[in-house]
């Protein structure tokens, strides 16, 4: 729906995100960086090494490697664990990024067979994991983005960890939004990561950088991942535009995750008071939730267009039509705090007035 | 040799390159870019589309796709031509980038068997190409970097093109340094590319950008390459740090290639006058040549260290020891023009005075 995205782009503030993805994001990150700060060079040099060492420490892992993308990092992680065990099968959630957003890269490039665990509308259970056939690696995504950012309890994570350890199944963490999960667990990143053999984190979701990812794990695993990074063409002569901006926005936002989550909880509560509107989870556990509206895309879209035009607040630029309702994703970032309470009241008044 | 690279880094000017690879390269490219210039988004948006269309036009191809690296772009090009023909074999020079710098990515990720054509110390010949078994694709690198940037004549290129056309072998151009070759051919890029089915060009060699590559060819080929780019994890949410800087440095340097080449020819002539020193090619055909010194690494290295310290001119930071001599690569860029004629005379006086 063209008008939906157009009116969304014309709003001054939005419920989601850290603001527009534009060159200013790069410029702000580099304002304080000296001109003579040296580039990394094919994975070497202090610019990349310092950030890798810092993130290895944050994640409590022996070693860490900077990658241009999580797609590249995670396929490589699974490949390494497959090679390590001599098995060509891994397991993950049916709505895992590798399954729905990567054009079957894992299968096409590595001939690794993924086993989809559980139902796509909920988290996988320990029982489902226990029933898996022999696999090299289980990938868990924390939070599970495509179902609104759900999280298992820490106790469930420990039980999954123990099962995998006993069965000699490598456990990999898709932590694209790991930092966003920490308020729920009330733990440090390293305490969560200690349950996993390898971890990927992203720097352009809650952190709001330009692009980039870290893959962390044992030293030998990370060294092998560098060989694969070269094979993939991800070992660029210079990754510093992503490294230095990732570091900048990590420092800027790492301690704001509790605030984003609190805002998500409050906002979801207000939406859930509306007729024909509900969220999943009902009470968000991270900074994100899915927002559902009864009605078809045309009808719901028109309503959004009108509200966005009249209030100047961006709700969404994109709706997914389901069976009798439409859905979108809300992901709280810095911009939410720029919305005045009057503006927000105005939004909900408009929703109420049909 | 630690002291060689250290003294090289301490020099103010160097025979090769466009200056130090540091954050200033990024800052200069973005100085004039507006803060509200939108990011590309997973390969979409005007920032990436405009540059792709521009380069498709420059290279005379129907379509073009921006990639983070040539490694990724070229493996994908060869894979597509293999799939197109149903064959799993390609051919290239023994010192092709895919053979020596990519950790066997083509074999490990695609199980494509490369056939190495000809002798590693010279260009491949038409006769050697005619003697090849059935292959999907022949890759030609213009200029052949690892032998000092040699180039076949245009007539030889035409003959290779006609042979491949007749035998239904796809012809791919590794044009990492294509722009640097144009003065030799006295032709437009599109006239060279017309002989090839697909073309890759780089933006951080002679062009001196941060990183990035363009893959160009028929529309269907390019569309398929985008699917593979996604599989590889190269379809980043934002590639603009590389795209906009590639464009900036392309515009800055595309018309300077003749000057770089003229300087390379003059500089090589002066080296060839020295005793125990010679270049390949003897007369450079692009902005680059290999520079050889009789003696072992220790002896030649010490001499370089002294000359670099005494003249402030960087010759090299890295020597490769061969059988009785040492080699390095010289690649002329903007910095060469900052060396005064007195400084250069000083360098050659030092070389003469042993």
TrEMBL record, chains A, B:
Superkingdom classification of source: Bacteria
Parts forming coiled coils: none
Cofactor(s) needed by this chain: pyridoxal 5'-phosphate
One Gene Ontology MF term: lyase activity
Pfam families in UniProt: Beta_elim_lyase (PF01212)
Residues of the signal peptide: none
UniProt protein name: Beta-eliminating lyase-related protein
InterPro entries hit by this protein: ArAA_b-elim_lyase/Thr_aldolase, PyrdxlP-dep_Trfase, PyrdxlP-dep_Trfase_major, PyrdxlP-dep_Trfase_small
Family under the similarity heading: Belongs to the threonine aldolase family.
UniProt keyword list: Lyase, Pyridoxal phosphate
Domain Aromatic amino acid beta-eliminating lyase/threonine aldolase: 40-281
């Amino acid at each position: 729906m063209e008008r939906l995205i157009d009116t969304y782009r014309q709003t001054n503030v939005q419920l989601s995100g850290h603001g527009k993805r534009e060159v200013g994001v790069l410029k702000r990150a580099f304002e304080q960086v000296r001109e003579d700060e040296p580039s990394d060079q094919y994975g070497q040099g202090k610019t990349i090494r310092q950030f890798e060492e810092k993130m290895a420490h944050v994640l409590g892992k022996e070693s860490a490697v900077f990658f241009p993308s999580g797609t590249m990092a995670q396929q490589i992680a699974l490949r390494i664990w497959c090679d390590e065990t001599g098995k060509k099968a891994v397991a993950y959630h049916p709505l895992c990024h590798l399954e729905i957003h990567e054009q079957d890269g894992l299968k096409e490039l590595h001939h690794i067979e993924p086993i989809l665990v559980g139902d796509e509308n909920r988290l996988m259970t320990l029982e489902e994991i226990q029933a898996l056939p022999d696999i090299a690696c289980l990938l868990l995504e924390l939070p599970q983005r495509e179902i609104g950012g759900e999280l298992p309890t820490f106790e469930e994570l420990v039980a999954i960890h123990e099962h995998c350890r006993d069965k000699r199944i490598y456990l990999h963490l898709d932590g694209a939004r790991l930092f966003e999960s920490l308020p729920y667990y009330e733990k440090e990143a390293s305490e969560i990561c200690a349950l996993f053999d390898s971890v990927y984190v992203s720097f352009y979701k809650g952190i709001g950088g330009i692009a980039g990812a870290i893959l962390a794990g044992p030293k030998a695993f990370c060294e092998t991942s560098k060989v694969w990074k070269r094979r993939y063409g991800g070992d660029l002569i210079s990754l510093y535009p992503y490294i230095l901006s990732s570091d900048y926005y990590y420092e800027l936002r790492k301690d704001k995750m509790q605030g984003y989550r609190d805002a998500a909880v409050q906002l979801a509560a207000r939406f859930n008071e509306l007729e024909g509107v509900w969220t999943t989870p009902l009470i968000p556990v991270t900074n994100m939730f899915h927002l559902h509206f009864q009605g078809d895309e045309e009808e719901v879209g028109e309503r959004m267009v009108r509200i966005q035009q009249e209030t100047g607040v961006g709700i969404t630029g994109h709706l997914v039509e389901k069976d009798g309702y439409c859905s979108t994703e809300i992901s709280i970032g810095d911009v939410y705090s720029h919305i005045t309470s009057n503006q927000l009241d105005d939004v909900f008044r408009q929703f109420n007035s049909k």
